Amino acid sequence: MTIPTLRKFGPRIYARRARALTLDAVERRDFSEQRESLAAFWTHVLGADKAPAAHHREWIDLIDLDLDNDRLTKVAGPNLELRGPRDSAKSTFAYILAAWAIGWNPGIRLLYLSYSEAIALEQSRKIKRLIQSPRYREVFPWIKLGARKDVTNWEVDKAFAMAHGVKPDRIRIAADAETDATFTLYAAGVLGSVMGKRSDLCIVDDAIKSAEAIASAEVRQKILDNMDGVISPCLVPGSRWIDVGMLARRGDIHLSYFTEANGFQVHQTRAIACDVDGTEHSYWPERHPLEQLQARRARSPHIFALQYQNEPPQESDDAIILNDWIHWGQPPARFDELWLSIDLAATERQRADYTAFVLFGKQRSPLHYWVLECVLFKESGNLGKLERLRELRQKLGRPFRIVCEGGGYQNSFEGDYRDYVQRQAPELQACSLVMVPSSRDLRQRLVNVSGVMENQLVSFAQDGPGLRQVAYQLANAHTDDLDHDDAASSFGIGLRAMIGRGAGRVWTA
Questions:
Q1: 284 and 256 in one domain?
Q2: Where in the sequence is the domain holding 436, given as residue range(s)?
Q3: What pTM did the predictor assign?
Q4: Mean pLDDT rounded to a whole number for the chain
Q5: Mind listing the pLDDT tens digit for each residue in 165-210?
Q6: Among candidates 393, 398, 391, which has minimal Cα distance to 333?
Q7: Domain count, the chain
Q8: Measured between alpha carbons, how far is 100 from 122 in angstroms, rounded to an integer?
Q9: Residue 441: which CATH number?
């Protein structure tokens, strides 16, 4: 029956049956290639004139592994860090990937993060518009928006997806998705709150946009803390984390968190590639001619090396602790000794100063030192610090040695500690307080322990709270990037005492 012959049934019946015939015609067409291949999907939904470039296809090969697990179909795999040059259409890649992942996983919980909430919401709108487009519906006809359509937090209609009759067998929704998956996509800035947003896939699209945006070490530390303490715990077992960004400056998030040491597969794309004979090529000649890139490099070689070549800054000759000396691993269940080092805030008037607790574990055979956790806080007076020590003693269930530098302000802590233990905290009586000679020179503290670091006798607990900030401060202690160095200072005090350099007086109740 052709569409013109339907006119005799009346306008309403004609319109209804015409739509049905159109949908039948769409469903009879074969879009399996566009569905199976992320590259083909990209070309289909955006058009041949916006097909993925060569560097995009390299990234696609690392993502489109055709792997499934209990949470993800087609997009399962290792955590991935993709470092692309500035102006390499990273955001286009990210939102196309998000839309494709939703098509294969109607029950997905996807976190979409960017350096600002405004940019994340803009990308969220693009993904929603793409899902509603005719070309997308040709490939994934079982995907349509659900009742909640807020741009920050929206979902697709899971019941419609499951009832649709033409989807492949691999399209499924996890058993708990109907009740647990309260969103399909949640968009936020990297410093935004995503607490409790348990997710199957996290896409980070340009966590850092420019060096100016993270010029403050405090801002960089906030981003690092939010990644480590808020976003990472949201990812459920079997989930995947994909970051797409560029290097902006020394110590940015791509060098301190999205690293191989932290479990990410790292792929770097350089704007100018060089053959073995020295011939240079543009990574994307259609968009960025080689001559244009070479001119940019000549104007700002340092910025070009970071933002276009994704080349990490070389270690400074003044570096005390090298990045290669910082090792991560899974600590043993028990230690022969536990040590807690304390770097006290100098005075109440120095309100930018922190008190830093760093907990260590020592193995005697074979000899090895583990850094287990770090706590930074601002607190006037000593009572609050002593109460924290008491809580830690109760949590650990065993005594530990407390290391603190001597000096005018620190001596008041020693006196308060003795009085507190004798009068209020008998559980701390088994702990010993070691007061070591004072040194205000952070460089000298770290020089004293650099040998055991270089000889790989020190490891950081992979999931240790607050340890990323310790590692960051250690690696940048020779630069002006640090607003405060209390964690690195406490680390140097404690490790020096543990290895027996710098004897001090010991007090035990």
A1: no
A2: 323-508
A3: 0.66
A4: 85
A5: 788 888 877 666 555 567 999 999 988 888 888 999 999 998 887 7
A6: 398
A7: 3
A8: 18
A9: 3.30.420.240
**Long-range contact pairs involving 308-312 (C-beta distance under 8 Å, separation at least 24):** 308/85, 308/86, 308/270, 308/271, 308/272, 309/85, 309/270, 309/271, 309/272, 310/83, 310/84, 310/85, 310/246, 310/247, 310/268, 310/269, 310/270, 311/247, 311/270, 312/247, 312/250, 312/255
Q: CA triplet 327, 260, 98: central angle to 5 degrees?
A: 145
Quick: pLDDT tens for 285-331: 999 999 999 998 888 887 888 899 998 776 665 678 888 899 999 99
Rounded CA-CA distance 320/313 in Å is 15
- Report, as ranges of residue numbers, the positions in the chain whose pLDDT lies below 70: 1-28, 174-181, 211-217, 314-318, 345-352, 407-411, 440, 480-483, 501-504, 509
pLDDT in tens, 54-66: 999 999 999 989 9
Place of tokens 């920050």: 152
- How many CA atoms lie less than 13 Å away from 384 in the CB half-sphere? 11
Whose structure tokens read 């109460």? 387
- Domain-embedded: residue 10: no
Any residues with CB less than 8 A from the CB of 309 and at least 6 apart, and which?
A: 85, 270, 271, 272
